[in-house]
Amino acid sequence: MTQHRRLIRRGAFTGAVAIGAIVLAGCSGTTDDADGSSSFSLGFPVSNEEETAYEILATQYMDEHPDVEITINRMPGESYNTNIRTQLQGGNAPDVFLSAPGNGQAISILPLGEAGLVEPLGDTAAGLIPEGSEHQFEVDGTVYGQPLNIAAAGVVFNQTAAEAAGITEYPSDWQGVLAACETVAATGGSFFVVAGAVGANAGMMAQAIAATRVYADTPDWNTQRADGDVTFADSEGWADTLQAVVDMNDAGCFQGGVEGAGFDAITNGLVQGTSTAMFGPSGTTRDLTQAADGAATFLAETFPPVDAADGVFGFASSTYSYSIAASSENKEAAHAFLDWMAEPEQAERIAEESGTLPITGYADMDFTGTAFEPLADMLANGDFVPLPNSDWANSAVYDALGAGVQGLFTGQKSVDQVLADLDSAWGE
């Protein structure tokens, strides 16, 4: 019965992909059934046809609660943020949906909470928020998102493909990156594969590079920018970050046609082994391993520093959360689901199924032999900060970063122009 229900819901998505955002904008929450069951809808982004951790946990919930039917809304990752925001404003969003902590995206918790588009949550959600991250989940002391896990974000590395191309180890510094690009290019492939047509992935690349160029030396750079003490335009670190994008493009580090590529280029390039690394969340290691049928080893890495002596520094935080739409007619059922998700067993399973770390207890884990082994010292030593855009003034800044990197790919933007665009998007 459970498998049959899941096939019905996923089958409905196939048409939605084909006809795009119009159909997605029409998805809405279900109402409680007349027989008293507590059903609701769940929305999240996808980049391929593989079953996600969100579906796996939803199916488990239905197995444990036979009176509940969860309607799954799988939405294309490229348009998820804008579609969810549109649906929330239109009052027809999924009851529960994947949101993001902080302030930097269209699905970020703070602007959604300030706009009254999401439901206040209670002590259960508040108790899961990592210490020091309360400001990313609360508006005036009210919590609007429940963190799901801890994820690192940076580079995902196909060790198997790299070795086949003649690279024996991941680069430890900037010169090593350029050398690796040359080595893989000589085989007809590319060291990095980027979904250049997708602003979010282009922006993710720039953030990953900025980890050691900006945040290693100035972990509170975002706070300083918010206070007006620094700007993008006067930041040597951000200038170096964007110049690195230009230099890598000139060095053949990216696949051909990078500026027009979508997420499928990443999946195809890494699974087929024509590219060896991508920019994105660490959880992608699990998805890619499954897509490659276990024939390749994927590792979570950080972008190398300019000099190896500078050491590893990266990003790790609760990058995704669940929120409840304020317009939901099934809030009681939605809250019950979030309470269940907060239980340790579910917290551990969603981390396992998504290739991330559980929201609590990760500091005591042994990463030997796992995809996280390269990040073990970084996590143990606290050499990381949350993903930068989660603390930026508004989603327009991240949009400007993604568009700016796209302009660097095509030569239509200079480094100075992109920096100025970022400050303009930030505002005061």
TrEMBL record:
It holds the Pfam family SBP_bac_1. Keywords: Cell membrane, Lipoprotein, Membrane, Palmitate, Signal. This is Extracellular solute-binding protein. SUPFAM superfamilies: Periplasmic binding protein-like II.
